[in-house]
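name: query_chain
kind: protein
chains: 1
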Amino acid sequence: MLAFLGAACAAMTRRRAILRAGALTGILMGALPLAACKTLSSDGGMDAVASATGDALSKDVAAIRTPEQAAVARAKIEQLLRRPLTVGSAVQIALLNNRGLQAAYNELGIAEATMVEASLPPSPTFSLQHISGQVEFEIERRIVANILALATLPARTEIAGEQFREAQLRAAQETLRVAAETRRAFYRSIAALELSGFLNDSEAAAQSASDLAKRLSESGGMNKLDRAREQVFHAEIAAQVEKARQQAISEREGLVRALGVSGSDLPFKLPKSLPALPARPRNFPSVEMQALARRLDLQIARIDLDAMAKSYGLTRTTRFLNLLDVTAVGKTAVDRLRGEHIRDLGFEAAIQIPLFDFGEVRVRKAEETYMEAVNRLVEMSVNARSQAREAYQAYRSAYGIAARYRDEVLPLRQTIADETSLRYNAMMTDVFGLLTEARERIASRASGIEAQRDFWLSNVDLDSAILTGSPGVGSQPSLMAMPSLDEADPH
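structure:
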């Protein structure tokens, strides 16, 4: 720093006789090559976002900033909405239409502008002073430049670049989060719709059975107890149907919010049932290592730590020097009587003397901030490994439960239903046995739908645990909370 000042002083001394006001600006602006100034990119940093999310999504990721881009996105959204949604088309619509995600891309654009601004050298300050007397007048010109800011410009530019890279990863993280929430909302909405349809069919069958019981009771073919059992069974199923319908409406609205649709786009179509379970679950023998290598929140923390390390080094370098301004001064004096012009050139340096603060406070603050970031990163790494293990075990468990319902529980329930119906027709069992079996079959079928839903939700949670670290919602409470007939009547 002292060498830099000495060189500047020597240069000014050598040119003292020929320096003019315009040349002063040239000397100060000659320091600009100390750092390569950044420029705004054409894509606003979105190429890095698309690259970070490409393998996980395989979808178009775009920041919509012009009417032309909005028209292209709208055409694609309308095309996807013409057909029943799939999980892939739902995610694509959300990536193009979710305004919260577009706001995150706006934040990325702001971060890029901040980076470019930080890379620009400080602008010099020009001042002009005119003093007039009866005999003579003086004109003094000053150009003030912050030499310390110029000297530290490369380091500050590098730190700003790291912060922009962090902003890109945050935009990618938000993209993956929106995609994951859309997938969750999609599976929940379909499961609620499927369960509502199943319970509605069951309610129709219970209604027919209740009407038959009423006619039999009126003709004396059914006693009052059996008729009451038929009626309460139908009433409970009807209550569950209403609950399931409301749940389906709520889940669909959750999907609407994730997609960002409104108006004429609301009547989109959904599949009538959840996707079938895969033939076998995914196998991740190194799920912990994948989480450590791929999670964006860990990458963001590492970049933040690197930026803090560079900032800490900059703080230590400038701990004794907070202010260093160099002023180029040009003065012209004119004697009105003699007609003489006297021109003087020189410089003025302003340095803040650290009488009370020798930089120890700033250095200690920077050091503690850096160590805090180190400890946070280590904590995040430990938590990431644990969350990845937990999500993988939950995924495997959810697959096992859903497969158990698909392969064993539901087929056995169907066998029991068929045998019970045969025995009832042969008068080998009473209405109570028939109702008990119907209630249990309905509950098993509803539990099977919910188990299938929970598997697909756990699949999304596993991806989130590996890629973003955003917490999963987990399984939803069962809609089938009816008490068993054994609890209602110990008959």
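note: The CA atoms of residues 108 and 343 lie 51 Å apart.
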